[in-house]
Specification:
Blueprint: H1 3-27, H2 36-52, H3 55-64, H4 70-94
Length: 95
């Protein structure tokens, strides 16, 4: 066997092994879905906690999710105000 033929044979063997692994992974059984009783229990726990909270606490909880984007909101407002300001200056100078 020549060197290129030997390399091609090795490459084909590796491809077959990879395809075998893919088939094994595709046919592996999946984890079963969570039971509906556990989902209902989780929803009931969250609803129970939400019923105990006041409106102010719920409002703070809702807006707490905005804290990571506050700098981006500031930058967006700044860029919008700067663009409007530059446009107004350009219109005033051109008459």
């Amino acid at each position: 066997m020549s060197a290129p033929t030997a390399r091609a044979a090795k490459k084909e063997d590796g491809t077959a092994q990879q395809q075998g692994n893919v088939v094994a992974e595709a046919t592996a059984p999946l984890d079963p879905a969570p039971s509906t009783t556990s989902v209902h229990a989780a929803v009931a726990r969250v609803a129970e906690q939400a019923n105990k909270m006041t409106s102010a606490q719920l409002l703070r909880w809702m807006f707490r999710f905005l804290s990571p984007v506050k700098p981006l909101v500031f930058l967006a407002c700044f860029y919008l105000a700067a663009a409007i300001g530059f446009e107004q200056l350009a219109v005033l100078q051109t008459g």
